[in-house]
Protein: Glutamate--tRNA ligase
Amino acid sequence: MSNTRPIVRFAPSPTGYLHIGNARPALFNWLFALRHGGSFILRLDDTDQGRSREEYADAIRRDIAWLGIAPHRFERQSLRADRYAEAAERLKASGRLYPAYETGEELERRRKRQMARGLPPVYDRAALRLSDAERAALEAEGRRPHWRFRLDETVGEVRWDDLVRGPQHVTVASLSDPVLIREDGTFLYTLPSVVDDIEMGVTHIIRGDDHVTNTGVQIQLFEALGGAVPTFAHHNTLTTASGEGLSKRTGALSLASLAEAGYEPMAVASLAVLIGTSLPVEPARDLAELAAKFDLSMVSKAPARFDPADLDGLNAKLLHAASYADVEARLAALGVGGGEAFWNAVRGNLVRLSDAALWWRVVVGPLDDMPPLDDAARPVVESALALLPGEPFGADTWKQWTDAVKAATGAKGRALFMPLRQALTGLDHGPELAGLLPLIGRRNTMDRLAARLHSSAG
Structure:
């Protein structure tokens, strides 16, 4: 890489909510900028006024902030129409942008005829052969032109060195001259994108590999407008666990839904970035840590399958490693007390932070109904109540207490510990009771043991 600080961009359209597949290019661009000391532009592709919504624009900014991305610059294409119109006029003047009048139905019939003759369904540039009189006649019929960018077929192939895929090329003869301006005068994605990339100094375009073919067109457009051609990187895309594509329209795996489900942003970011690479899928504590080990050369060319079930393991690992200071404010917001002692006691059993509220209810009570106490467990609970140590309860209280019950009853292993766990927590699994017992306290412990015996008496 050159010594120039890179400028990258993430350019979503605000026509739906971001999903995990959209997060991948956003994160790749952010990590690249972070790793190389560059800057990141969030640029909304909101030229489609019919489908763009302000609520989606707000959600995009909120979602990438949740991931930890803090753009250095924010732009909206809807505010830059004059720049695109000026670029279009320059292309018209140079003969690279020309009017075409075919309807969609006419173009489809033409494509079918070409395919029937064994020819590629590429636009035949019929519009370039129209005389001035023929164009005037079409416009007199009420037809309005769309405008196509004339590709330079004399170069044969457009080539670039892709940071993910290596040397790439697109044969110009395999491409149709792309439409840049619709009949109603609105711009398609390609022209605004290239104009913005030039004027905003974008040095690297990092995006999904579904844009590979578009790159040949865009490189020619950069050159036609006199702009420096950025370096391209086309990463593999994410699919669902079953191999289906992700869509903003369905809302599947939206970032908002993952946040609402209680996943940590770094669990989502780590999986979105590392799956489909040569790196192990392990949670990073923050994006700086992820940027330090991630490189585009590590990305596979094959699609990567995103399984939400994988998030649970990553989420759990992040929480298990989190300090009390990391989560103190969030625990307070959940109504969870107990301080650092409680956090250290339960964090190893958490998958999502909200699980801590469940264990806090176990500590403070009341407990849910429990199954009847069987005859084998009764002597253990009776002895436990009789041998309950005095206060204060500390880190060694559980061992001292259970040693005494074991000596009195002869019970050991599951026969000793399960009746006590059920009596104290109402569950047959959970955090180590050595850590929970001081939080439950002597009064609650005594009441729960007594209640357990009473509920199954007679």
User: Anything to note?
Assistant: The CA atoms of residues 43 and 75 lie 5 Å apart. The domain at 95-181 is CATH 3.90.800.10 (Glutamyl-tRNA Synthetase; domain 3).
